[in-house]
Amino acid sequence: MHRSDSDIVLIGSGIMSASLAAIVKRLDPGLSVQVFEVAGGLSQESSDGWNNAGTGHAGLCEISYTPAREADGSVKIDRALGIFEQFEHSKQFWSYAVASGMVGDPKAFIHAVPHIGFVHGADDVDFLRARHAAMVEHHFFRAMELTIDGARIGEWAPLVMEGRGSVPVAATRMERGTEVNFGQLARELLLWLADQDRCSIATGHRVVRVRHVGQAWELVVQCLKSGEMKSHRSKFVFVGAGGGSLPLLQTTGLPEVAGLGGFPIGGQWLVCDDSEICDRHNAKVYGTTPPASPSLGAPHLDIRRLDGRRQLMFGPFGSWTTKFLKNSGRWTDLPGSVQLSNISTLLRSAIHNRALVRYLVGQALQSMDHRMAALRGFYPMANQQDWRLVEAGIRVQTIKKQDRGAVYFGTEVFRAAGGSLAALLGASPGASVSVSIALEVIKICLPQLLDSTDGHARMKQMIPTYDEDIKRASSAGLFAKSAAKAEELLQIGQ
Ligand SMILES: Cc1cc2nc3c(=O)[nH]c(=O)nc-3n(C[C@H](O)[C@H](O)[C@H](O)COP(=O)(O)OP(=O)(O)OC[C@H]3O[C@@H](n4cnc5c(N)ncnc54)[C@H](O)[C@@H]3O)c2cc1C
Question: How far apart are CA 107 and CA 192, in angstroms?
Fold first, then answer.
């Protein structure tokens, strides 16, 4: 279905567009909303369950979120605190979506699973102890357990310890971790949206151009079935096209876009379907990030629940690609994105990041034996015949002129034309913080939706702590109450 104009148009049907569209429509039920999706189905790219790790990122096990060691040996945890708080916003909104019937059974998209940080070697053991000491001081992480006893780690994650020699080991565990099927969640939110008055979703429609005309935006959209080009006008555009966002931004002619470049990084998983092995692992076990690898590279061994079955997943392995999207991308995406205005940014980035480029090429050239060796760092007794290699999603890291060749792996909201257009740059920590990203877009581009008493009250219903700082010690009680309520509704409580 396709309208010729709307108050809000969203390009792409991943978790970012789904979250923003659903929240905006709840804030103002009178708004007309249009979603365009190039694929034949909804949320098939990075948000689909097989294309990401499904980790509800909350800083519980991701050692890379707390990398800095201070001169006194302590560990900084600010980034982990920020991501934890953002994930609370997500859980609050999802629990509201369940309670209000926007989505169905929470078990279809979220499960509780312990999050474990695991290290070996004396230096890393020392680091994990310091990290744990810093984290348990805060009310978010008070329940975090630490052990340096291999037998105890073997109880938490037997596969990780069986057959391991006598090296020093350490692990932290948080029982309240989660696994999320972001694709399923996005599809349910969008199906709810499609049922609302003045809302419409058109799949099989590729947006090919976005132009500012007068006070509005004009999109040129190609129907892939008929080949027909149609136009759509809207007051506000959200470019939630994942890897497809940069090429679309380049069609706008906005001065802010000049100099932006894209750097695609493919992902791959090793997957095991053997139910006897899968039944012996009930955790997400994250290790340390190998030197020179991007944040995509922190390896982890996870239990997943996809297509109604349990699987073990290990990775991600990086891979070299020139495509910006796994399903709808073309090999010409990267060369096609090179323009006079961004060629120097791209070249400088290639020179500045030689270690990263070498890492990616090395990952692409590695054999199954190399991948199994990496897996055995987590599961020493792993047998090659139990594992298969599958393609994950593609992340397109945006490179900016002002970063002088450096590549940052965070996520950033790009805002242009007086806030009438927003897009997402970057890829990490991704889907887990989609609700906070929607909040940020609303605050900076659509503040009128929150200004009225009614808008504020509606937002408080959806995300009760959206205007509170639950990181503060004095907010520990508020955090405990709101977390318990969300976890009960999502059926992930203890
Ligand atoms: C290997 C890997 C592991 C990850 N693990 C995690 C994890 O454990 N936890 C986590 O929180 N995040 C994780 N992420 C990140 C997360 O998957 C992404 O941040 C998130 O899914 C991005 O959602 P999105 O809506 O922006 O993009 P997408 O889900 O990619 O959606 C974009 C949509 O736009 C469509 N589109 C593109 N161009 C056009 C166009 N021109 N016209 C119309 N439609 C278009 C695409 O077809 C697609 O459906 C991971 C990512 C990767 C690659």
Answer: 18
DSSP secondary structure, 363-424, as one string: HHH--HHHHHHHHHTT-TT--GGG-EEEEEEEEEEEE-GGGTT----SEEEEEEGGGTEEEE
Closest-lying ligand 1 atom to the alpha carbon of residue 182: 21
Which residue from 19, 42, 46 has its CB within 8 A of the most atoms of ligand 1, so it is best to mutate?
46
Instruction: Name the token pair of 427.
Output: 């890829």
Q: Give per-residue pLDDT as tens, 289-339.
A: 766 555 556 899 999 999 999 999 999 988 888 899 999 899 998 888 888
Residue 344 CA to ligand 1 center (angstroms) comes to 27
372 neighbors 389 (Cβ within 8 angstroms):
no
Residue type, 275: S
Q: Give dist(CA 172, CA 170) in Å, integer.
A: 7
* CB 395 within 8 Å of CB 356: no
Measuring CA to CA, how many Å separate 276 from each of 123, 153, 285, 300, 471? 34, 20, 18, 20, 41
CA–centroid distance, 426 to ligand 1, in Å, is 11
- Which of 51, 52, 115, 325 for mutating ligand 1's site (highest number of atoms within 8 Å of CB)? 52
Q: How far apart are CA 217 and CA 436, in angstroms?
A: 25
Average pLDDT of the residues in 168-188: 97
> What is the identity of the amino acid at 146?
L
CA of 47 to the centre of ligand 1 (A): 5
DSSP annotation of 455 reads H
Closest CA to 460 of 441, 482, 431: 482
pLDDT score for 425: 81
| Mutational pocket test of ligand 1: of 17, 20, 35, 47, the residue with most ligand atoms within 8 Å of the beta carbon | 47
The pLDDT score that the predictor gives to residue 279 is 96
Q: Is the dihedral of CA 155, 157, 158, 164 positive or negative?
A: negative
Q: Hey, how many other C-beta atoms are within 10 angstroms of the C-beta on 70?
A: 10
d(CA 358, CA 292): 9
- Ligand 1 pocket: which residues have CB below 6 Å? 11-17, 36-39, 43-47, 52-55, 57, 182, 206-207, 240-242, 244, 248, 267, 316, 325, 328, 392-393, 395, 424, 427, 429-432
